[in-house]
Amino acid sequence: MSELSFKDKVVIITGAGGGLGKYYSLQFAKRGAKVVVNDLGGALNGAGGDSAAADVVVNEIKAAGGIAVADYNNVLDGEKIVETAVKNFGTVHIVINNAGILRDSSFKKITEKDFKLVLDVHLNGAYKVTQAAWPYFRKQGYGRIVNTSSPAGLYGNFGQTNYSAAKSGLIGFAETLAREGERYNIRANTIAPLARSRMTETILPPPILEKLGPEKVAPLVLYLSHEESDVNGEIFEVAAGFYGQIRWERSGGVLFKPDETFTAEAVAKRFSEILDFDDSKKPELLKNTHPQALNDYASLTRAA
Ligand code: NAD
After folding, report:
1. Second label for 103, Cα 20 to 30 Å away, from 3, 79, 202, 279?
2. Any residues with CB less than 8 A from the CB of 174 and at least 6 apart, and which?
3. Residue 58 in contact with residue 29, Cβ under 8 Å?
4. What is the position in ligand 1's atom list of the atom closest to the CA of 167?
5. What amino acid positions are annotated as catalytic residues?
6. What is the pTM of this model?
7. Contact 157 CB / ligand 1 (< 6 Å)
8. 3-state DSSP call for residue 91?
9. Which ipTM score applies to this complex?
């Protein structure tokens, strides 16, 4: 396979002043992309700001002969970030929604402020940047979006109701973007990575951190962003060299007949059948539209 080039492509990477985003930026630039390195340079909990975070990355790219511009806006001002891309490079082709913060707290103690702020940065920030880029994607018949979820968004994690909710939200967001963008050659996918960064360096032991370099996540992000990739609406787990796809599975289920009484007791009685995956289906996203799902239920009714 020939090298996947990003020559003349404009990519916005949010939260690119450190960790994963920094590494993505360097890789995109190395392959010829014009990179908008967005980062407001705040602390892990989102407090404060410092333009140095994005500047350092841009300087590194330029020193290596690449093309990049720094952007210090909050992702919640997504239109300004897209404006930076358009002003400097004429358009935007790829958005990597990567910016994130942590405000961990048990659910018992979490404050509304900490709950909402985490949703804002991860989910509403991704919405704002993507929505500002969308008209450019549609007009040029090309756009790639990679959202950053997390194992916490797939499976939950103690102390992270805010983060898990935001990270699951990013999955549904990409799934619907995938549908709406399909005919304009816009592709939207989600990754759930685990990597060494300031988010993990205080909670994982050094021997594990050593294996979690960002260079093991970036190749998937690059591939999903490339015009040759048609992958759309999918979810991937990626860490330490492992690459796997996540998908939905629906149990064979139970159909209560119309003459049966629909009661909680009836559900309780047949609950083990509801949970029985022996006869399961794996709904495929783009083939399994909402009306299609309704059809599935209808055919069950006919069979009953
Ligand atoms: P990181 O803290 O190094 O990177 C996040 C960056 O986002 C920071 O540079 C920060 O300044 C920036 N940022 C925060 N709020 C912003 C805002 N409002 N506007 C613009 N920039 C903002 O951590 P990372 O591990 O590289 O995280 C990258 C992404 O990967 C995050 O979305 C994170 O939730 C996700 N993730 C990371 C891991 C992991 O193991 N490191 C696991 C799952 C998901």
Report:
1. 79
2. 145, 147, 188, 189, 190, 233, 235
3. no
4. 34
5. 163, 167
6. 0.95
7. no
8. coil
9. 0.99
